[in-house]
Design a protein that fits this description.
The chain is an all-alpha fold. It has a two-stranded antiparallel sheet. The longest helix is centred in the middle third of the chain and has 76 residues. The chain is elongated and about 130 Å long. It starts with 23 loop residues before the first helix and ends with a helix. InterPro entries: CellSynth/LPSAsmb/PSIAsmb, TPR-like_helical_dom_sf, TPR_rpt. Pfam families: TPR_16 (PF13432), TPR_19 (PF14559).
Length: 468
Amino acid sequence: MNCYNCGALLTENDFCTSCGADVRHYKRIIALSNMYYNDGLEKANVRDLSGAVRSLTECLKLNKFNVDARNLLGLVYFEMGETVNALSEWVLSKNLKAEKNIADDYIGSVQNNPTQLENLNQAIKKYNQALVYCQQGSLDLAVIQLKKVLSVNPRFLRAHQLLALLYIQAEDWEKARRELNKCCRIDVRNTTTLRYLKEVSGAMVEDEAKGNHRNRKTEEVIKYQSGNETIIQPVNVQEPKRSFAFLIYLLLGAAAGLAVALTLIMPSRMQGLRAQLNEESRTVGEQLEKRNAQLNELQTQVEQLEAQNAQLAEEVNSYAGTDGTLQTVEDLLNAAYIYLDTPEDIESLAQALEAVDAESMDSGIASEAYRNLYDKLLELTGPEISQACMESGNTAYRDGDYDAAVAELERAFRYDETNSDALLLLGDAYRRNGDSRNATRIYDQVMELFPNTENARRAENALEELEG
């Protein structure tokens, strides 16, 4: 363990023998962080992945420089099918420790396999489409889409859970249980999975209980004791005829009953059947008209849904690239790759960051890990990009190309909002270009953001000259 102040190796003392800093609390924090890391490692070994995520997250809260914990957290995310979260952790780990870091191998194994990367992107795209179908109430389409997701990425835990939830909605308990068992094989102690399993088990027990209370057939025999013997007597068994007279009387009675039925009962019965037939025909006609109206209504709904589907397809295409991958994820991964591979290529890095769709993050579509990776790249590269844009804008300003100077200086201030020199020069470029309104706005912004500075004084003088 090294001192947080001077980096010297610490001893058993509660102070640094090199610089004298008090390291008592620092040692406790590092020890607690290592405890969480060991707990996360143990949980990951027994496939308690959700518990491992919680422990490793707590570990990184206490010591964000714990590279081993960050790499392990990325592996756990990747095992759960959360590819973007995994890549985010590995990129941050690479930034913290550039040399001899196994995160290089993890990132390379994903980026150097185009087929795997394409499959992961397709899984993300189809999962998002399944969520859209669920929000629209098209549960059958959502089930089909989730099956495609799991055929591409069978370890995608959230897709398994959503598919199980749809089966629960349809009361298909057996399929729901099979999906939840797959979830347990991925993450044995996931709270959501266990809660769904409890609901499914309870519903299956209730169905079995209802099946056991069905009416049973009555026994076909009667048993009773007579002394030491058990008498078994059949039920509903007719005794044999004693003579042919009984049969003759029976036939005569049947003939008389038939004659009465044909002469008295059948005409009224036929009339009743005709009336019933007419009533049923009228009812069928009304139902047919109702069905036709419902069919027309359903046809209208189908046309509306087709229009909505076309609109959603256009929206999805706006986010997708020509190869079918999610363009926003692809652009962000491209920017991260440029930073890791050629950090000195500032212009390419700036172009890659500007290609990222910032509106998708503001609209809430992007995940938290996606936004964290984007913000971290801006934090690490923003000042250098701002300085490069500042130099380009200054050159254009000196050459009299004020339109180009305005564009470059706006980029410079957008990447580093503490660059007061770029903002002041932007106001001068607007003024030289004849745009007094924007020049006044920029000078006011310099005085507001950087009060009591030399640039604020220059902006005030320029504003007085402009207004005078």
